[in-house]
């Protein structure tokens, strides 16, 4: 129940920030949405209902599924990369550098 509430709060805050103007706010909203997905994936593995997925420590049928944890690790890396990219775009925008293709002048 606690994880569901945490996911709901993070998604609500993330959607609010993504819809706000400003690239830094959008970046923070994206980070919150990423954390919400990570919590959702970890709880889907049944870590609280089953034993830790360590080899040689118990019955394999009673162990939690390690696949969601691998997904979360991948999601953390992807979220970090996109966050750095968005913050670099925000920094370039702040310094007045062009961030996209130039518009044709008429």
Automatic annotation (TrEMBL):
Record membrane topology: Multi-pass membrane protein
Keyword terms of this UniProt record: Cell membrane, Membrane, Transmembrane, Transmembrane helix
InterPro entries per UniProt: CPA3_antiporter_subunitC, NUOK/Mnh_C1-like
Location relative to the cell: Cell membrane
GO CC entries: plasma membrane
Coiled-coil ranges per UniProt: none
Family as reported in the entry's similarity comment: Belongs to the CPA3 antiporters (TC 2.A.63) subunit C family.
UniProt-recorded name of the protein: Multicomponent Na+:H+ antiporter subunit C
């Amino acid at each position: 129940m606690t994880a569901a509430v945490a996911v709901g709060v993070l998604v609500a805050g993330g959607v609010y920030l993504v819809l706000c103007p400003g690239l830094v706010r959008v970046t923070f909203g994206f980070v919150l949405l990423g954390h919400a997905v990570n919590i959702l994936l970890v709880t889907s593995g049944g870590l609280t209902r089953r034993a830790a997925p360590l080899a040689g420590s118990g019955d394999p049928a009673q162990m939690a599924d390690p696949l969601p944890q691998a997904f979360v690790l991948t999601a953390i890396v992807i979220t970090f990369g996109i966050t750095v990219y968005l913050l670099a775009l925000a920094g370039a925008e702040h310094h007045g550098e062009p961030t996209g293709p130039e518009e044709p002048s008429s």
